[in-house]
User: What shape does this take?
Amino acid sequence: MRPDDTRGPATNTHPLDVEFVRRQFPALATPWALMDNAGGSVLPGVVIERARAYMARYQIQVGASYPLSVEAGERVAGGRAFAAELIGAAPDEVVLGPSTTANLRTLRRALAPSLAPGDQVIVTDLDHESNIGAWLPLRERGVELRTWRFDRARHTLELADLEALLTPRTKLVCLTHAANVVGYVHDIAAITRRVHEAGARVCVDGVAFAPHRRVDVKALDVDFYALSLYKVYGPHVGLLYGKREHLLAARGQNHFFIDETQIPYKLEPGGVNHELTASLVGTRAYLESVDRHHGDEQGALDLDRVFARFADHEARLLAPVLAYLRARPNVRVIGPGPEHDARRVPTVAFTVQGRRASEIVSTIDRAQVAVRWGDFYARRAIEGMGLREQDGIVRVSMVHYNTPAEVERLLAALDAAL
Ligand SMILES: Cc1ncc(COP(=O)(O)O)c(C=O)c1O
Assistant: This one.
């Protein structure tokens, strides 16, 4: 088995050529340093080109016998095949939809008939609302919703706290891989093992993790896993993985004549967005170009290798930001201490004593560094941290296309703001 997500960044002999990377992204030709990537990453030109090419030639219905329709269907299938490859799944285990929020709501409707009054579903108070609110309507069926509260000192989900909630009636545990307001990577493989021992399933929100590290749903052994491709250098499409047997057993959400064996189509009401799904092969082409550029041309695209290179580069961006913030006596960095930095993606949230988050960000804006303040739809987490009154947190979220020079600009802007 491949190492799970507990590994830190790998050390590559060839560090990421970030200038090469940046040339692939038209939107990076801006004076702004884009550090709000956990909200959405910009797109490689090749993705835009694939969407354009599809729309120029094929904006027709797929599934017919005439050649154009067949070709169009192949383009869409190619996009789905990459979505599956990205997470190490089979194409029929990958449900595509407009967003993670929409996909998780579809999943809840599909699983609801299998739950009985008195069954329990666990959600956290650290997640983005997407993986909490989707499940709450189950209460109308008599399902008990329990809350796995995050550790108030470390801002992480602790297995010991889950233990107290698990019972023989627990059917599903919904949690985040890395919270979008903390960036700490939970040990999903270990948590999943424990949940399975208890006879329940997991539904993991991987949205804030997937832009940074390789997702391998088989190694993690998760039952359901959601991510948003528009944060992973792709178009605005949500990806929901489910183990094949779970998808087959789930109640279809499409037309009545779409058979229960037709996965994933039965869980894609109305079908997928054709042009955006077809453009997903552009994300693959981009990742392959990075792999090739660094001399890794022996054979096929190696996603582990590409994401290890990204993680390595991101660790170099993250370290000075954390060091700077921790050295300021009036700043509090959200999340566990420095000994856990290897388990962080480069998403840094902080607060400043006696200051509103909005005030800090408006000063940073003047330096043309794009960061953001608020609760980031992790409303319950921000309330649990007692931060609503001060406009939540300031969040700096970097990805592999950010540069050390941009980090310098951020630190200079912070000098002015703090
Ligand atoms: C961690 C996390 N989960 C879920 C979502 C919701 O994703 P979507 O916009 O695809 O519904 C977001 C969006 O910011 C997020 O950051």
